[in-house]
Amino acid sequence: MALIGYARVSTADQKLALQLDALSAAGCDRIFDDYASGAKADRPGLAEALNYLRTGDTLVVWKLDRLGRSMSHLIEKVGELAACGVGFRSLTEQIDTTTSGGMLVFNIFGSLAQFERDLIRERTHAGLRAARERGSQGGRRPVVTPDKLRKARTYIAAGLTVREAAARLKIGKTALYKALESA
């Protein structure tokens, strides 16, 4: 039952000292670290720490954001740890999933993150529905406008190829072919 620490800073200019001191004071037997953005999936220090952990161990971080890129990513990582029989502890937020209270708090965070994602999805769908009701059409605007299509037909009738007509109108030949076929 070892405490294994993980520290991360985003750039080489930043210092790990604060995190390393806190993890050592918390009693971590071994500490792994990374100089990498939290947005990067490739974090060798984290991968090494995860490989080092054994059932009954606890992964300790200074702050929640040191482990996960987002709340959903953090929940996923802690879920993976729990499935392997590994606990998780965050020193700053005082969350410890090896205790029932710590697991409760962490699950509440997870529920709040899911609630936020659901609200965003609902607002997005409501906005799209309202825009459609006002006559707005989603998606990209067509490259070949009715005016460009009319000009392209004139050019082609005058003897230009579709490729030459598309070049003159500054549109792609594939888009012009599709517009000519559908009209």
TrEMBL record:
Q: Name one GO biological process term.
A: DNA integration
Q: Which Gene3D superfamilies match?
A: Homeodomain-like, Resolvase, N-terminal catalytic domain
UniProt xrefs under SUPFAM superfamilies: Homeodomain-like (SSF46689), Resolvase-like (SSF53041)
Q: Which UniProt keywords apply?
A: DNA integration, DNA invertase, DNA recombination, DNA-binding
Spell out the Pfam families in the cross-references.
Answer: Resolvase
Q: Which SMART domains match?
A: Resolvase
Pinpoint the Resolvase/invertase-type recombinase catalytic domain residues.
2-135
The keyword Cell inner membrane is annotated on this UniProt entry: no
Looking up InterPro entries in the UniProt record yields: Homeodomain-like_sf (IPR009057), Recombinase_CS (IPR006118), Resolv_N (IPR006119), Resolvase-like_N_sf (IPR036162), SSR_resolvase (IPR050639)
The organism's place on the tree of life at top rank: Bacteria
What family does the entry list? Belongs to the site-specific recombinase resolvase family.
Question: What is the protein named?
Answer: Recombinase family protein
Query: Could you tell me which species this protein originates from?
Result: Edaphosphingomonas fennica
Source species taxonomy: Bacteria, Pseudomonadati, Pseudomonadota, Alphaproteobacteria, Sphingomonadales
